[in-house]
Amino acid sequence: MKLNSIRSAILGIGMAVPSKILTNFDLEKMVETSDEWIIERTGIKERRILEDGENISKYAIEASLEALEKAKVSPKEINLIICATLTPDYLIPSLSVLVQNGIKAINAGAFDLSATCSGFIYALAMADQFIKNNPNWKILIVGAEALSRKTNWKDRTTCILFGDGAGAVVMGKSSEPEKRGIIDFILGADGSQWQLLTLKGGGSCYPPFDKRLPEDEYYIKMQGREVFKAATKMVEKTSLELLKRNNLTTKDIKLLVPHQANLRIIEYLRERLNLPKDKVYVNIHKYGNTSAASIPLALYEAEKDGKLKAGDLILLVAFGGGFTFGGALLHW
Ligand code: ACO
């Protein structure tokens, strides 16, 4: 493991989710499905959903303020805000700019990052690079999604999966580079299979209300079984490669925090990495798949549950539509 003398680290973490809960039993009344089927195939029991009239920026701001408070960093000290999201409130302005205004980060630049469910890992890798070049910078990363707004509630193959929420971290230079901070990351993509997971409507090819496109294309569409196969390969390969090139083995990992897309994908990875259950963090049963928000939500709850202590070696791994994939190794 090669450690740079300047390492970026997570200085504080926050999360915020809507209070409205949509259970599997609620879904039974909306589409032909069952609590039993959803739990067996996905591990999901319930998810959080925005109320009508609410927007995800509200939760992105709430999560950010908590992360800032925990990091003991004031909004004025933030140099850059990166929001990983595929469901910003608007296309203009970006979600990051709404967060910048909401938290009064008057000295920050702000942009959104689109890498589907891998977005948080992509943002972490970007922040790491900025901090290595500008060691005094403080960067706010937000993973926030309003997937309920892009879910086809008549499609039982997808509507059981998604949820809304926001997680945020403040990144800065590690004060103990020998013990804490990002070690390495992998970012990847495979566009050859893009047709397996799409949200075509509303982009510039098919602008909103374009009559050429069937209505269901204005929502997330997925060939679940095929995505499942690709996802398992991507997360296994990424995890093993990251460990190998840092001369680490799965025994060195204190906690694996994977993107929460499907419990069966997480279980597959756990078995391939030969990790005991208590070394893999899972909270998919409460939130479903929240795309770019899922890893910060899991990190937040892992810390709260006492599963993450300063200096612990953790592995983050994600995949998502595109396909995109990514992994990060860090000392908490
Ligand atoms: N309730 C009951 N039956 C259902 C439901 C449902 N909600 N959904 C599908 N079925 C039926 C199907 O119609 C099918 O019936 P058939 O055999 O008569 O044709 C049967 O159940 C099995 O369907 P599969 O699609 O093969 O089910 P599978 O075990 O693959 O589970 C799932 C589906 C949960 C979607 C799984 O494939 C999956 O998790 N895929 C990966 C999804 C993912 O990780 N996406 C990540 C990216 S998300 C993003 O980027 C925003």
Class per helix and strand makeup: alpha/beta
Mean pLDDT: 97
**Taking strands numbered 1, 2, ... along the chain, how are they ordered across the largest sheet?**
1-7-6-4-5
The fraction of residues in strands falls at 15-25%
Secondary-structure element string: EEHHEHEHEHEEEEEHEHHHEE
What's the architecture of the largest domain in CATH terms? 3-Layer(aba) Sandwich
> What does the main sheet amount to?
5 strands, mixed
N- and C-termini, Cα separation = 16 Å
Number of strand segments: 13
Using the alpha-carbon principal axes, give the shape: globular
CATH class of the largest domain: Alpha Beta
Radius of gyration: 19 Å
Low-confidence stretches: none
Number of helices: 9
CATH topology of the largest domain: Peroxisomal Thiolase, Chain A, domain 1
Domain Beta-ketoacyl-[acyl-carrier-protein] synthase III N-terminal: 111-191
GO molecular function: 3-oxoacyl-[acyl-carrier-protein] synthase activity; beta-ketoacyl-acyl-carrier-protein synthase III activity
Pfam family, one: ACP_syn_III_C
Region (ACP-binding): 260-264
Describe this structure in words.
Helix 3 (56-71) packs across helix 4 and helix 6 (224-245) packs parallel to helix 7. 30% of the residues lie in helices and 23% in strands. It has 2 domains: 3-173, Peroxisomal Thiolase, Chain A, domain 1 (3-Layer(aba) Sandwich), CATH 3.40.47.10; 181-331, Thiolase/Chalcone synthase (Peroxisomal Thiolase, Chain A, domain 1, 3-Layer(aba) Sandwich), CATH 3.40.47.10. It is globular, with a radius of gyration of 19 Å. The strands form 4 sheets. It has a 5-stranded mixed beta sheet with strand order 1-7-6-4-5, sandwiched between helices. Strands 8-13-12-11 form a 4-stranded mixed beta sheet, with helices on both faces. With 332 residues, it is α/β, with parallel strands linked by helices. The chain has helices spanning 24-28, 35-42, 56-71, 95-103, 119-133, 224-245, 263-272, 284-287, 294-304, and strands at 8-16, 21-23, 46-48, 80-84, 109-113, 139-146, 164-173, 181-189, 197-198, 221-222, 255-258, 313-320, 324-331. The protein binds acetyl coenzyme *A (ACO). One of its GO terms (cellular component) is cytoplasm. Residues 243-332 form the Beta-ketoacyl-[acyl-carrier-protein] synthase III C-terminal domain.
